[in-house]
Amino acid sequence: MNLENKAAALLWIAKFEDLPDPIQLSLKEKADLIEEEGYLLQFEKGKVIVTSKSDIGLLYGTFALLRKIQTREKLEELSEIENPKIQKRLLNHWDNLNRTVERGYAGFSIWNWHRLPRHIDQQYIDYARANASIGINGTSITNVNANALVLTPEYLEKAAALADAFRPYGIKVYLTARFNAPMVLDNLPTADPLDPEVQQWWKDKTREIYTYIPDFGGFLVKADSEGQPGPHNYGRTQADGANMLADAVQPFGGIVMWRAFVYNEHTPTDRIRQAYDEFKPLDGKFRENVIVQVKNGPLDFQPREPFHPLFGAMPETPLMMEFQITKEYLGQDTHWVNLASMWEEVLQSDTYAKGPGSTVSKVLDGSLHDYKLTGIAGVSNIGTDRNWTGHQTAQADWYAFGQLAWNPEQNIEKIAEDWIRMTFSNDTEVINTMKGIMLNSYEILVNYMTPLGLHHIMARSHHWGPGPWVTGGGRDDWTATYYHKANSDSIGFDRTETGSNALAQYAAEWKEIWGDAETIPLEFLLWFHRVLWNKKLSTGNTLWDELAISYQKGVEGARWMQQEWNKLEGLIDPDRFKHIASFLKIQVNEAEWWRDACLLYFGQYSKMPLPEGVEAPKHDLNYYLNFKRNFVPGI
Ligand code: BDP
Fold it and tell me: Which residues does a 6 A CB cutoff place in the pocket of ligand 1?
């Protein structure tokens, strides 16, 4: 188009300063509201306009326009200013340097360290584009169980090549820092964060990293947890450790994401108390460029947990959320469960920190405590599988994570619908059927795995399938019996005043609601209380009957998902139809496995018969105890 015709163009994708004067004039007021990464979509005098202040805003705006076209929204109605509500929106890869992925179920790591930096695979670009299309702006590329080697020049060169590939898409690279790297790489006698030589080592190392990656985002650290070294080894606090690294990255504008997933080598009376007990006293003691990364719940990505009590409890220390997109505890690669449903439950939980309405999402977006730094991370579920995520529908979790990271208040039904429209079809029957499955799937899964607040009853180490019998071994809090404590009269973990009192870490409102076994919502009953098998619940059923009915409901739910899906034959391309259909067979089968194994195991203690309507297990308990006992899927 020549310049004279420029004004006649019907589609404008341009930074605000590059728009023709008349358009600038009419959009001035709206444009003032656009922030650095934000954009404006506007239909104005017959023209579609995408504008922003920055290149990255323009990219986000363009993807938003594409989304609207794909989902058939009316372009004539466009009028939307979007700014991300959270600053740091990251994927966390638990990828090892040997290309295995910890808790990854979609193949190997997409980072081909051997070929890097010489070969830049198209997949890196596709990855960056896909992430930019959902607003993700950072990626931590290495496992939190960190290998110090990634900090050596050889690997920094490779990481720099990835950073170069991601940069046009607004994605910064972060690395995991192994706390004792000064000892491992340079034979320092200590990694004590208060030792000047150690501090200098990290400063020098950081300066070196920035020579490779000038816009390096910073470090993600797992310390003093599950064998990872940390400040505890030197009698120092988590703040001492984090601040040392923060001082090293500060001159370059970097940040430190310090994980709250800290637990001792010695089992406390209740493991879920530890992060709060450890971090709460440190509130306000971290440098300004530290953000503490907290898992959604106080235990460890279980199918259902109450929100982590640190949210709302650290007004002087920015906290970020860590969600797990990979389904370690939720059926791994073959179960269809819409994680956005779980995340919404947590994001909308009220911490009551400043009275009603103090939701977790307001902690995260910084508005509740006026955090200067805000963030959210999702443990990636992608790998070398052709469809990226193993289960076709697990792409929806990656997508939903990006959407909620951009704006944690977003409506998850709309997120699901947009994803279906963009990924499968705009056909009403497909949309409604898939949406129905997705929006019900989370409750269904919780029912067939861990109903009524049960948790950590999965098989040992690989975490796939039921294992309520798991007991003994190195750590009590890595067993199932530690958490459910079933005996001949009752089941559940007493976390009220009469027990571990972990409940005390929550606001008074929650103490009242959750503290009373009579009124607590059933979904958290056994998380907070020990309950007699024959106790009558609000539903009119005894606890045992309620448990059995819940498992049965879960199985029926999985069967219902399968039937619903089968209705779509012919409306979806045959490849993906069959792929999902076969995974649903596995899901139904494994839902039955969970129900039968758990009811047989717990039934030994309750000694009560299965209530009417609950199917009898197909095998005896021994069968399940021995079933695939030696099989370790993945890593
Ligand atoms: C647990 C995983 C383990 C991770 C750990 C973590 O089983 O593989 O290393 O979380 O988050 O859920 O550090």
Answer: 102-103, 144-145, 222, 226, 261, 300-301, 328
CATH label of the domain that carries residue 15: 3.30.379.10
Give the mutation target among 147, 225, 271, 328 for probing the ligand 1 site: most ligand atoms within 8 A of CB: 328
Torsional class of 163: left (φ above 0), alpha (ψ -120 to 50), beta (otherwise): alpha
For the CA of 301, the closest atom of ligand 1 is: 12
* Residue owning the nearest CA to atom 9 of ligand 1: 145
Report the C-alpha gap between 315 and 311 in whole angstroms.
Answer: 9
Q: What is the ipTM of this complex?
A: 0.99
pLDDT tens digits for 110-166? 999 999 999 999 999 999 999 999 999 999 999 999 999 999 999 999 999 999 999
Which residue, by CA, sits nearest to atom 2 of ligand 1? 103
Are 301 and 324 part of one and the same domain? yes
Ligand 1 centroid to Cα of residue 475, in Å, is 15
Question: Would residue 61 count as lying in a domain?
Answer: yes
pLDDT digit string (tens) for 410-463? 999 999 999 999 999 999 999 999 999 999 999 999 999 999 999 999 999 999
How many residues appear in the chain? Answer: 635
Q: Which of 42, 61, 82 lies at the terminal end of a domain, its last residue?
A: 82
Q: Give me the domain span that covers residue 60.
A: 3-82
Nearest-atom number in ligand 1 for the CA of 329 is 12
Q: Are residues 460 and 555 in the same domain?
A: yes
Regarding whether 328 and 275 lie in a shared domain, the answer is: yes
- CATH code for the domain of 558: 3.90.1330.10
Catalytic residue IDs = 226, 300, 328
> Is the same domain home to 39 and 100?
no
pTM over 0.95: yes
Q: Is residue 603 part of a domain?
A: yes
The one-letter amino acid at 394: A
Which residue has 């717990």 as its token pair? Answer: 602
Distance of CA 218 from the midpoint of ligand 1 (Å)? 21
CB 460, CB 467: distance < 8 Å: yes
What whole-number distance in Å separates Cα of residue 317 and Cα of residue 284?
A: 5
Q: Please tell me whether residues 195 and 265 are part of one structural domain.
A: yes
Query: What's the CA gap between 184 and 191, in Å, rounded?
Result: 9
Q: Are residues 60 and 102 in the same domain?
A: no
Among 147, 259, 300, 455, which residue has the most ligand 1 atoms within 8 Å of its CB, making it the best to mutate?
Answer: 300
